[in-house]
Amino acid sequence: MIQLIWVINRMKQADPRQIKSKEKLHDAYLKLLFKGQEQFTIQKLCEIANVTRPTFYKIYKDIQELRLDIHKAVLDDLKEALTIKKQILTTEFTQNFIPENLTLLFQHIQLKHIVYETFFIYQPDGTFIKEVKEIIKDFIEEGILLSQSQGKLLPVNLKLLIKYLTGAYVESIIFWIEENYETPIEEMAKSLIEMSLHGSYIPNSLQRSEK
Predict the structure, then answer these.
(1) 3-class secondary-structure state, position 25
(2) What tens digit of pLDDT does each residue of 73-106 get?
(3) H helices then E strands: how many in the chain?
(4) Cβ neighbours of 190 (radius 10 Å)
């Protein structure tokens, strides 16, 4: 009986009409926030989304649940972008090396730019920002472990270093949004990995090669 209920629920979740309605509601919600409208009715939301109130209540119990569903959808995509699928040692890093995950990160930000512009800049959402930081922190921590670079790290507290780098990643995202994505994705990814590895200084290997 439990298995049957699970199958039925999965079928409901896979209903293409419901998926389309969710997309419309997500877009409408973000449009309203983007315009600075923090308080609005479900009726107003449904009118903009071009869905009926009964359809809304089939999917969500209230607007807060809709908001959290937007969070989950975007955060799941972010986790996928920052999932390390291949171990790369620091010895493999070259001058022009760009980790695939960092390219995917900025591609994800650009694809979901309305969400990040809304929840990071125009209507800051502390819960969303905190979850983004947590995903980035896990990525950095795993990257340090898999790259076997612990012996090459600065002699500082590891937790402090991870928090420092996490903050740098988040501020880099905000910078990119505020400059209207003018810097190419590959350049953003390359700059981020170089700053993560060398800080604000030119590494000795490059200094020697320029002489």
Answers:
(1) helix
(2) 999 999 999 998 776 655 555 556 678 899 999 9
(3) 11, 0
(4) 18
